Amino acid sequence: MRYSDRGGLSMRARAERERLRFIAADLFAGGMSAPQVARELSITRKSACAWRRAWQSGGKTALASKGPGGNVCRLSADQLERLAWELERGPAAHGWSDQRWTLPRIAAVIREVFRVSYTARGVAYLLRGRGWSPQVPVHRATERDEEQITAWKGWRWSALKEPRRLGTPGSSSATNQARV
């Protein structure tokens, strides 16, 4: 994934980008134009022009990194711990009869317990950032008997299955072979 912290550069990449911006500021101060800086630092002209505008309006400090992008989590560490506990309790503890957590249900639990509103997509980002992954339940009949299925596969399926064709010599070409 190009952006390792889910939507932004890694810490190392941010520091490298900031270093480039500071070098660009020194070059701008020395009288270089944005296209010249772009060529010198192997960056796009668009970035060089944007950096020059920022440098002109706020100096070198305007080019400092503002940290990782994206929204900040609206739940504290204690609340996240409590959310994990609520999810472990299961959907039945929150009034749903089937045992499936859906993103809207988790959003409803967060709204009910913490009085914080999240969209389904926001819940997905929140859970993925905490190591949770989506699980798709396997739908099977309650009457299903695994022992009978295994036994059936052993004696009946082998009789129904076609015997393997023996390999025959031939051409792998889709066209007929030329006759001599």
Note down, in words, how this protein is organized.
It holds the Pfam family HTH_23. This is Transposase. Residues 98-153 form the Winged helix-turn helix domain. There is one protein chain. The protein is mainly alpha-helical. Among the domains are: 11-63; 77-129. It is 51% helix and 0% strand. The two termini are 58 Å apart. The model is unreliable at 1-5 (pLDDT under 50).
Which key phrases capture this entry?
single chain; 180 residues; mainly alpha; 7 helices; flat
Label the structural class: mainly alpha
List the total number of helices. 7
Sheet with most strands: none
SSE order, one letter for each helix or strand: HHHHHHH
Percentage of residues in helical conformation: 40-55%
The low-pLDDT segments are: 1-5
Shape: flat
N/C terminus separation: 58 Å
Q: What's the pLDDT, averaged over the residues?
A: 85
How many beta strands in the DSSP annotation?
Answer: 0
Query: Roughly what fraction of the amino acids lie in strands?
Result: under 5%
The radius of gyration is: 31 Å
What are the SSEs and their pairings?
Layout: H1 11-29, H2 34-41, H3 45-58, H4 77-89, H5 103-114, H6 120-129, H7 146-160
Helix pairs in contact: 1-3, 2-3, 4-5, 5-6
